[in-house]
Structures are given as C-alpha cells and as structure tokens.
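Troubleshooting: if your tokenizer reports a length mismatch, compare your output against this known-good record of 261 residues.
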Amino acid sequence: MKNRLAQLIQRDGRALFLPIDHGYFQGPTRRLERPGETIKPLLPYADAIMLTRGILRSCVDPENTKPIILRVSGGTSVVGEDLSHEGIATSVKEAIRLNASAVSLSIFVGSKYEHDTLLNLARLVDECEDYGIPVMAVTAVGKELEKREARYLALACRIAAELGARVVKTYYCKEGFEKVVEGCPVPIVMAGGPKVDSEMEVFEFVHDGIQKGAIGVNLGRNIWQHDHPVAMIKALRAIIHENATPKEAHELFIEARGSRK
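Known-good structure output:
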C-alpha cells in the first residue's frame, strides 16, 4: 500500500494526476477522440494517469511506466436517466492484472443512488485492502453543479474517508475550501470540471487550493482540451511541484506556448 501510494504522491507530498476516463460516460469527448495521441506529449509531466481498462489496453503503450489509476465504476451515460446509478464495472483482479497503482470510483452523496454508490466504495475498499491497492473516491455531482460548495464537499469528502478511501478527488470551491480539506483525514486532489475561459483562472484556483491544503490536482479537460496542452501541464506542474505563483505559472505558460514543444 505504501509503495503504491508513493508512486502516486511524490516525495514533496504533491501530485499531478491526468484523467482521461471521461469517455466511460461521455463517449468520444472533444480532443479525447484518440486518447493515446492526446496523452503522448503530456505523459512526461504527469505523475499518474487515470483511465478505464479499455483505453489502457487499446491506447496506452504497455512500456509506459507512469502509474495507473484505474477507473472501476461505470454503468451510466450522459443520455441515461441518472448519472449516479453506477456500479463497479471492473474487478480488483483485473486491476492487479493491469498493474494498476490505484483504483477509483465515483460516489454521489445526496443523490437518489447515494446508498448504492457508498456501498460500492465500502466493498471496493474491503477487497482492495487485501491486496494493498489504494482506492481514490471521486465526489461526483452528476449534472447538479450547484452542489460544488464547501458544506456539501466537506460532507462528501469526510464520508469517503470514513469508508476507507486513501485519496479523495473533489471540486475546488472559492469559499471555505480550507474547511473541506481540514475535515478530510486523507489527501485531497482537486478536480478541474468543465474547461474555463482563461489560463489564469485555472492557475489561480489550483494555487489557492494547494495553499489551503490540497496535495494537487486530477485535471483533464483544462489541460488536453486547451489549444496548448503541453504548456498548460508544464505551468500547472510548476505550481504543484515548484510552488510557482499563478503569475509565474502564466509566464511559464507563455514561454512554453511560444516554443510549441
């Protein structure tokens, strides 16, 4: 368990995870139509990648040595009745076969299927602990974006930790995010959510979240949907691992964007 967590969370206590699991409920998401090509230039700057078994098998070079966070929940889609009606779609045996460093699943606190998703987490933790595999719980909100406020996020994160998650992925909120982190006894990484309008918005919320106790990010669309994804991930890496300010990160972004490398 400690070894796998050390693969994910770096020696400085920080982490930059790159999720490309969006297709499991969204289908061929824009700029993720060909996942292998999307992530190839980004992998050197990520600490781990989060994805499903299908994309891992079909799109990722097996010689890749970046740690894998395997998405194991699923069973719903954006055209279905309720995104929260998820089950465990991939076995722990499969995660071991694919050499995953961790597994992840979503919980939907306050939804119609809250009970089911929380028991999914509890059962997954039970099985993964037998094999020393960390579970990352994702505090999903489905289509109800108004739930991204501190009181709700603190509740969801604490419940995830209480049920045994070793890491929690949750949304950043401008007001009260420090209370979300303080109430969660395991590390928190921030989700990105929909792509925002400017690079500085991303740099500012990531920097602020880290100052308030998050260990890093699990950020996808604000990186690989950007016109300059490599410049974005380089700048974010500077904030996370080099304590760069948003202004310094933006300067690095401009420099990297100009080089087009």
